[in-house]
Design a protein that fits this description.
Metallo-beta-lactamase, Chain A, six-stranded mixed sheet, 8 helices, binds fe (ii) ion
Length: 306
């Protein structure tokens, strides 16, 4: 076990033995299959919001805050104080509502420090001018592997889990782990690794780090698509369940087997519907591009690039 995973392991065990466990509320966005979470410390009411969604009707070019407003209502009605807005990565399937939530509720916006690489790749793809700094300065904190933070009295530690994108982070918060786009439910498998900067081999290694954590560890996933034969959406599982039965990466699947499977499967997947609007906005920490001189904001569609 590497030193950061063993620190995460110790933190999870401490949390399981103590009375202080994070309270977790999920918000599922069916149009993008995304799960957002509000995590809070029952003792202090301190909270973090993970992977929020700004509704977006692409055909109309219209954003909406219905999903984010549901989170605001939950935070207010439970008397929570938002300390963190955490992104597990720059999502390619939905726009983040983090700036809108930050404006309403406060809190520091954080993501993995490798976001700078993502900003460089996509800054070029979108041919963004020098006003876009590509230094992560849109965020209040950039996390490296093994960084620690607190939500009230609850301890948290970050794990850098690249592969789906270079910047993916998993957040270990008390006895729960927010896996971002690494693992999905055991019957659905794993995240794709074919976006710019993605790497199936890295994804396998990242997942193996997560699966070294104690087997009772609660895992909260970022997406669910209902596997064949399952009628309900699901987003919570355990390390033990993933080790035993994840269809792509259960115990015994080798790195080479995983890479062959992932590469073959990724070649059959089309780009997510909202990748161009999502990445364009999320590389800026969820901020929409500045308005042009007529007061309207525009998104770009690079042709024949992806
Ligand atoms: Fe993703």
């Amino acid at each position: 076990m590497d030193p950061v995973v063993s620190q995460a392991d110790a933190l999870i065990r401490r949390s399981r033995e103590s009375a202080v466990k994070p309270a977790i509320q999920a918000f599922f966005d069916e149009p993008t299959n995304t799960v957002s979470y509000v995590v809070h410390d029952p003792a202090t009411r301190a909270a973090a919001i993970i992977d929020s969604v700004l509704d977006f009707d692409q055909a109309a070019g219209r954003t909406d805050t219905k999903s984010a407003d549901a989170i605001i209502a939950y935070v207010r009605s439970n008397g929570l104080k938002v300390e963190w807005l955490l992104e597990t990565h720059a999502h390619a399937d939905h726009l983040s509502a983090a700036p809108y939530l930050q404006n309403a509720l406060g809190g520091k916006l954080a993501i993995g420090r490798e976001i700078i690489r993502v900003q460089n790749v996509f800054g070029k793809i979108f041919n963004v001018g020098t006003e876009f700094e590509r230094d992560g300065s849109e965020f209040d904190r950039l996390f490296a592997d093994g960084d620690r933070f607190q939500i009230g009295e609850i301890e948290a530690i970050t794990l850098h889990v690249p592969g789906h994108t270079p910047a993916d982070m998993a957040y270990v918060i008390g006895d729960a782990v927010f896996t971002g786009d690494t693992l999905f439910m055991p019957d659905y498998g794993t995240a794709r690794a074919d976006f710019p900067g993605g790497d199936a081999r890295q994804l396998y290694r990242s997942i193996r780090r997560l699966l070294q954590l104690p087997e009772e560890t609660r895992l909260f996933l970022c997406h669910d698509y209902k596997a064949d034969g399952r009628d309900e959406y699901a987003w919570e599982t355990t390390v033990g369940a993933e080790r035993a039965s994840n269809i792509h990466v259960h115990e015994g699947v080798s790195e080479d087997e995983f890479v062959a499977m992932r590469t073959t499967r990724d070649a059959t997947l089309s780009m997510p519907k909202l990748i161009l609007p999502s990445v364009q906005v999320n590389m800026r920490g969820g901020r929409l591009p500045e308005s042009e001189d007529n007061g309207t904001r525009y998104l770009k569609l690079p042709l024949n690039v992806l």
